[in-house]
Amino acid sequence: MEPQAALEAEEVRVELLALESALGTLRPEEREVLFLTAVEGFTAREVSQLTRRPRGTILSLAYRARIKLREFMTRAESERRR
After folding, report:
1. What is the CATH classification number for the domain harbouring 25?
2. What is the pTM of this model?
3. Is 50:7 a contact under the CB 8 Å cutoff?
4. Which of 9, 34, 45, 82 is least enclosed, having the fewest CB within 10 Å?
């Protein structure tokens, strides 16, 4: 592996570890909604039906989960650059 490729692979590994840590900070219902919407591609209405929670609750959980992840990843990136 060339030095640049090795460096990029290490950066990806560090990013994945940070993402895993960030996901661990979410409440279980936030992780569930984030997974169902962002990974599985379900709409808020579909997640509402699957989880038997109001659509507004699903939207709120997804919003809070994205905010928490963004803040965690921003902090992690800032710490790595120090």
Report:
1. 1.10.10.10
2. 0.81
3. no
4. 82
